[in-house]
Amino acid sequence: MNQSVMKALKIVELFREGAQELSLKEISNQAKMPKPTAYRLLTTLEQNGYLNKTKETEHDVKYQLGLKFLELGNLVSDRLEVRGIALPYMEKLAKEINEVIHLVIVNQNEATYIEKVESSRALRLNTRIGRSVPLYIGSGPKLLLAFLTSERQETIINQSELISTHHPINKEQLKEEVKQIQKNGYAYSIGEQDEDTTGISYPIYNFQQKVVAALAVSGLSSHFEGINLELIKQETAKTAAEISQKLGYQSADQD
After folding, report:
1. What is the pTM of this model?
2. Which of 61, 141, 148, 237 is deepest in the core (most CB within 10 A)?
3. What are the φ and ψ backbone dihedral angles of 20, each rounded to 5 degrees?
4. Model pLDDT for residues 45-80, shown as the tens digit of each residue
5. With contact defined as beta carbons under 8 Å apart, do 87 and 115 qualify?
6. Contact, 214 vs 140, CB < 8 A?
7. How many whole angstroms from its chain centre is CA 100?
8. Neighbour tally for 143: CB within 10 Å
9. Cα 219 vs. chain centroid, distance in angstroms?
10. Which strand (E) or helix (H) includes residue 73?
11. How far apart are CA 230 and CA 154, in angstroms?
12. pLDDT in tens, 161-171
């Protein structure tokens, strides 16, 4: 790892001992690095919101952890919260419809699978917890793409090349599909990650009315037809709504 990064992380680690604030001298001594080096790293951390300068005198400077860590901590907390809350509902849904259930979140410019419940069918999908895929492949990722800001959508879709395993991707068609997902409130895909499979996804909202995850159902395309398709859509939409309510979401008709 880059030595400057290692040294910056070493400085941040000093605050784990419970110190509310540390001076430049204390940081230099405890991190065992020259004052000029420590000051340069501290200035970079401060400029990016990771540290705040609390006091500055002719002889010393004091720092405390910045709000950036609170922001990042809340992001991690939200992800852990949605996973913990969603899992029992996912297990219940899997028993009712006997298909594979996924929980998918946005991770930078990709979609990451953070939970999965298998069905009892002899079906193995190319998904696993921790796997990341582009936001334009599969019902869960595309649903998340549809609820990003228009600026982020444009950035992702207008990449120089959109890579797909099974089907070529037309950017204009993808933009139209994103609009349709927004209009319908769910995403539908056929054979995009695994051949002969279909996926349907519904949004999970938090108390801020923001989409924080996609509840995705996947299985053999032959199961996603007729009455069974309507059952899958109905039960998945209901389960996504129940998880959202647990996260504090209130729909317009609940206000």
Report:
1. 0.70
2. 141
3. -70, -35
4. 999 888 988 877 767 788 888 877 766 666 666 667
5. yes
6. yes
7. 20
8. 32
9. 23
10. helix 67-97
11. 32
12. 777 666 667 88
